User: Fold this.
Amino acid sequence: MVRVGIVGATGYTGSELIRLLSHHLQVAITALVSRSEAGNPIQSVLPQFQGLCPPTLSAYDPDMLAQACDVVFLAGETGFAMEHAPDLLARGLTVIDLSADFRLKDPAVFAEWYGKPHTAPTLLNEALYGLPELTPTEAYRTARLIANPGCYPTAAALALAPLLKVGLAEPTGIIIDAKSGVSGAGRSRISVEYLFTELNENFKAYGVERHRHTPEIEQTLSTVSGQTVRVRFTPHLVPMTRGILCTAYARLHTPVSTEQLHALYREFYAQQPFVVVRPLGNYPATREVYGSNRCDIGLTVDARTQTAVVISAIDNLVKGAAGQAIQNMNLRFGLEPTMGLPQAGMSP
Assistant:
């Protein structure tokens, strides 16, 4: 039985970890940490957990976590993990960080895009970037620190990796147009633009000039392709709770048919239980992966312009956050990768 602690338990990602791990047959939730709700039962903050018996919310205490847990999920805001992960690692814990703190390998790139210096740069090279479909399984065996990918980078990387791995696509000029539900902003986001009256019946782009996930997408795809990749990434906010729909456009080196591209994707993801390559002419929608740990992919080739068009859909809180973190935990502790994770979506 793997003993699990969750820091940031009352946020959207933290609560999703609780929901999923409560049904995991090889996990015991032994610590729930909340800065603002310490001392309260989780049910008083998140009534959806009535009937469960998780531990009472507590203040952050690395000694308590070391005594109670084998692995700690850090679901706090950017900056928390790089401050506290070194102490947890020194106490022998495995750490899975769901923030951006350990995703980028270059501290200068982190400082440029996140506007603050990295305070634990010596851990950046050690941190395993945990995108299971693209990360070698054997790399998990000795990992102490796992950086859980961002939601947009997950959808974008899974959409484009097969193309770039075999060198079919130009590594520059790739366009990524992605739409996300509001939960991606987090539970603590309080500003006028996130009021119901501002979001309802509204649809807008944001981070158009630059978005923090751009260097993460480029780093992942550069690693896959073995050459420098540059993308034009524009995210959009959609008035729905969950989901990301990512449409990626990549110019092809040589003529390839839709059938050939589809066969490539089917082969590339044949052994990956959470990636579904849809039949030809079938494209995913966010509702179809709602609540699941799947990434569904549909694709075509525009023969006129020799452009591959690849559409991916994920639930941003599951495959884009908590579900993928649990998938990483399963791999780290030698469990079945699918254990505790839903493959079917919820509809309606």
Remarks:
- The mean pLDDT is 95.
- The chain has two domains: 2-126, 152-316.
